[in-house]
Amino acid sequence: MASFTAAAKFLAPVAAARSGGDSRAPPPPFPSASLRPRRKPAPSRLRTVLAVSSDVLSGNKSAPAAAAHSAVTREEALELYEDMVLGRIFEDMCAQMYYRGKMFGFVHLYNGQEAVSTGFIKQLNQADCVVSTYRDHVHALSKGVPARSVMAELFGKATGCCRGQGGSMHMFSAPHNLLGGFAFIGEGIPVATGAAFAAKYRHEVLKESGPDGLDVTLAFFGDGTCNNGQFFECLNMAQLWKLPIVFVVENNLWAIGMSHLRATSDPEIYKKGPAFGMPGVHVDGMDVLKVREVAKEAIERARRGEGPTLVECETYRFRGHSLADPDELRKPDEKSHYAARDPITALKKYIIEQNLATESELKSIEKKIDDVVEEAVEFADASPLPPRSQLLENVFSDPKGFGIGPDGKYRCEDPLFTQGTAQV
Amino acid sequence: MATAASAASSLQYAPHGVGAASTKKPRSVVPAATARGRRGSVRARGGMAARAAANAEAEAESKSGGHEVLLFEALREGLMEEMKEDPTVCVFGEDVGHYGGSYKVTKGLAEMFGDLRVLDTPIAENSFTGMGVGAAMKGLRPVVEGMNMGFLLLAYNQISNNCGMLHYTSGGQYKIPIVIRGPGGVGRQLGAEHSQRLESYFQSIPGLQMVACSTPYNAKGLMKAAIRSENPVVLFEHVLLYNLKEKIPDEEYICCLEEAEMVRPGEHVTILTYSRMRYHVMQAAKTLVNKGYDPEVIDIRSLKPFDLHTIGNSIKKTHRVLIVEECMRTGGIGASLRSAIIDNFWDYLDAPIMCLSSQDVPTPYAATLEDATVVQPAQIVAAVEQICQ
């Protein structure tokens, strides 16, 4: 566990809970928190209610430590770079396609957060599971779902990874163990807990053991979710049964227009891990190498059966909450602060400075990804829309669930069943 | 017509004690010979001929012995048999393990199968139901118990979005073979929140199947069928029916999830009911028979989807329908059943469909008021007399 401290701020369970962690002052109270009877305030002492002042901006956790991670090989560095560039270019293409009327509804883009997805998911095996939220395109890509499947799904075509039935917020891929894609925040966390439970069950009850250890599940979710009941309930159960799961908080400070500090009594999410008996780690989510370091340790812990970890990644989304969000509440200086910490630029700089690759090699990776994403768009454009008959096909895994019709036969036995209606 | 209703169920409704052994002949059941076949192939086949053959075989078998069980024991037997046969079947719920289940349905199972297969969960319905979904996606077959069905309101997020819809939104990639079960319905002065009927709340969720058991025989059969089903199934049990006693076959059997059960054949009126109201209907049927009526009583059992074949055949014979249910009038199972009947069998009706439901009130604690919220046998008798005018 010592390696956590190298890259990130780390709280061990119990010890830190008692000692109170660090000695930073708590955030300033709201003016109305005082319980004294109100008198007419003297004008000079009137405090204006501050819009959010992000204590993260005050420099406590954000300063990237120099070389606070183990060495990375050229192959690994290029893999990380390529994955992050894929995420960025894909999401930029999504925005373009949306404004051209190729995709509709709610589309939530991941620009700026690539380091978290790449840093974590590239440490997983194929058998490990990922559970995400509505901001799931890049998690899908990092887990290995082909860009053309994701793009076709976004276009609502029958060749999409979910046959066009899920859409942007419901990316699933059984071959890649991507368990969704959930539209309500928090509802994926119990599903991830269940997948981790199944891994433990397979090992202990069914006596199936993998060569490495337990299959690990990663649950990704945001700062807003950390005030939701399902988050706390699952932290409890995961630690209780020592499930092989890592809870990854992508704290981008904003839940649509709700600042994390306005919504949360104690905004330091990583501290909530030790409250349940698991380690809580805070890491700079704009630095893929640091994220990778923490991810390795947390995933290995889970694989060995030592239980869950709560990892809070400080990150930022460069675009609005969704493509419909005017994004008027976030201040320009906050945005420029994080734009300067673009994870892709940072990794590029690192690779070149460490002589792991040349600039032209990196440019050729970018060109290759451009082609991949272009091809994905062409594939999605050319793909057919789902036919009417697809409407009733996947409602039930066993279509007998549509029941017995007036003629005595199961409705699904009627050859024209899928052209009919779904009354039960 | 004054034929005695001896061929029908003589299962006595006895809220606290035991009932008489039943001589009921099960209408549709898969004979043991096919029940031992390949896993997953045990289903009653649609089609009248197949069902008639199955009935004949079952009649012969049920005369050959059997053992008496209480309803909760029947549920446990079904669950235990499935857990023995398939190691991926597991149970999640509050107090299901060491405590044995608050209605003893899981008594002894934790000792038999271990603490991981019979998992005592913390009090977090939404999350442990979601855990069941995640586990089902990764190949397990969880049986999630709500200590009282009403508690599953907390799990509505997971039941609606994930149990019901996830197979669809994943484009068919993941199946959710989960069983969600628990006792619901109006009990004996349990108060409003412990007396809820969630079948009316869940019925709109697409992708969910719902069944309600009412006898030890169909409780065991439906439990087994629900566990074997690849669909998410909600199995509604009733707090007041757990101590019903009946003789059930020694041989393995399952009941078809989508079929209704003919309780008492008749000619004058079709009475459609389920769960506890079946017993109020049968009590009213005794009075009706003495008055010279011949009601046909069908326990619909499958709340979603409806068995329109059995129901339709009955309507084509009697031309009059009375629905007796325990859920509230507004948006209840009866409301949906009524519109399904109108859509499909309008031409066969000689009278408007009557529906007796519970009042749209929270169930009061006081005994007299509680009795007034649910349908009583006297109301059923009056309704039949009105329909048959």
Order of helices and strands of chain B: HHEHEHEHEHHEHEHEEEEHEEHEHEHH
Overall mean pLDDT of chain A: 87
> What Rg of chain B do the Cα atoms give?
20 Å
In the sheet with the most strands of chain B, the strands line up as 3-2-4-5-7-6-12
Q: How many DSSP-defined strands of chain B? A: 14
Helix content of chain A: 25-40%
CATH superfamily of the largest domain in chain B: Thiamin diphosphate (ThDP)-binding fold, Pyr/PP domains
Largest interface: A-B, 67 and 67 residues
> Number of folding domains of chain A?
2
CATH architecture label of the largest domain in chain A: 3-Layer(aba) Sandwich
Supply the CATH architecture of the largest domain in chain B: 3-Layer(aba) Sandwich
Quaternary class: heterodimer
- What is the overall shape of chain A? globular
Tell me the overall shape of chain B: globular
CATH class of the largest domain in chain A: Alpha Beta
Q: What order do the helices and strands of chain A follow?
A: HEHHHEHHHEHEEEHHEHEHHH
Count helical runs of chain A.
14
CATH class of the largest domain in chain B: Alpha Beta
CATH topology of the largest domain in chain B: Rossmann fold
Provide the fold topology.
The complex is a heterodimer of chains A (424) and B (389).
Chain A: H1 2-7, E1 9-11, H2 15-19, H3 74-99, H4 114-121, E2 129-131, H5 137-143, H6 147-154, H7 188-204, E3 217-222, H8 229-240, E4 245-251, E5 254-255, E6 258-259, H9 260-263, H10 272-275, E7 280-284, H11 288-303, E8 309-314, H12 332-339, H13 343-353, H14 359-382
Parallel strand pairs in A: 2-3, 3-4, 4-8, 7-8
Antiparallel strand pairs in A: 1-7, 5-6
Helix pairs in contact in A: 3-4, 3-5, 3-13, 3-14, 4-5, 4-11, 6-14, 7-8
Chain B: H1 32-35, H2 48-62, E1 67-70, H3 71-85, E2 89-93, H4 109-113, E3 118-120, H5 125-137, E4 141-145, H6 156-164, H7 166-169, E5 179-184, H8 199-202, E6 209-212, H9 216-228, E7 233-238, E8 245-248, E9 261-264, E10 269-273, H10 277-290, E11 295-299, E12 302-304, H11 308-318, E13 321-328, H12 333-345, E14 354-358, H13 367-373, H14 377-387
Parallel strand pairs in B: 2-3, 2-4, 4-5, 5-7, 6-7, 10-11, 10-13, 13-14
Antiparallel strand pairs in B: 1-8, 6-12, 9-11
Helix pairs in contact in B: 3-9, 5-6, 10-14, 11-12
Region (Disordered) (chain A): 16-44
Cofactor (chain A): thiamine diphosphate; Mg(2+)
GO molecular function (chain A): pyruvate dehydrogenase (acetyl-transferring) activity
